[in-house]
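Fresh eyes needed here. Have a critical look at this protein's tokenised backbone.
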Amino acid sequence: MSSPQPSGSSIPVSDTRRTRLLIIGAGPAGYTAAIYAARAGLAPLVVAGLQPGGQLTITTDVENYPGFAQPIQGPWLMEQMQAQAEHVGAGVVQDVITGVDLARRPFRAQGDSGTTYEAEALVIATGAQARWLGIPGERELSGFGVSACATCDGFFYRGKDVAVLGGGNSATEEALYLANLARQVTLVHRRDSLRSEKILQQRLFAKTNVKVVWDSVAEAVLADTSGRVPVARALALRNVKTGERAELPVHGVFVAIGHDPATALFRGQVEMDAEGYILTAPGTTRTSVPGVFAAGDVQDRIYRQAVTAAGTGCMAALEAEKFLAHLPEDAPAPAAWT
């Protein structure tokens, strides 16, 4: 640990924290990895990041996480996961990682606090964020009629009218899922043709309760403020060719323009696909760097659910435990997986 700065110095005191297993990210994947690793005696350290709890901290009713007969609140679920991780021996640090060095051992991660974290193994669980349009009402009504996950929230719109914004595979798949629940699904797309796979388009157009509004963009989500809390009531639309404006009455709006994995820190240090998702060896959470594991939405471009993130968090902890058990002191780094 470095020596303290003189009294009155404006330079922050930096130190080094060492752990066998460092977990970056504190969502379902990170906390589950911490729980399993702590119970294995690894005394893991979790660096929570900018949004401890991940996307569940902005989710209201959660009905699809196993073990709860009644809806639970996303922030409460994440508080419970953190408490469980700490109860079994994991450390949770409120810091933000600003840089990593995975080219040498021990791995190093630099915190915004000035702390350097060193670890023999690393779990990347920094999650992903839904892309938003940035239109008025979108964020304000998130959880109150606006969502970025039909699988998560479609259940609440059974027999109601909903809109899906987008034109790629994500939007088409969301609309297909919602068509089995909602009374009417309106897909709003800014072009005159979809970008999704043809087979998905065929399935979509075969649905009698789905219509498409072409050449149009959403300019705002309009709120009904007559109740206890504001809720979505309509979309303000504009035709990009004619300029004509209209309101589309809906109970729910699903933004489906893709997700961005939070992996910029690791670019150039672990293998990723073209969209920035970390590549893992099939059936595992192992990355291209031995001793580095990826769990949750950073490596899952398909499901992106809390329960699947928790599952890969468990996998990452078990694989990290096995890796550390076979890692001799001062051993050279093993070859990467192929």
About this structure: Helices lie at 28-39, 74-87, 150-153, 169-179, 198-205, 306-325.
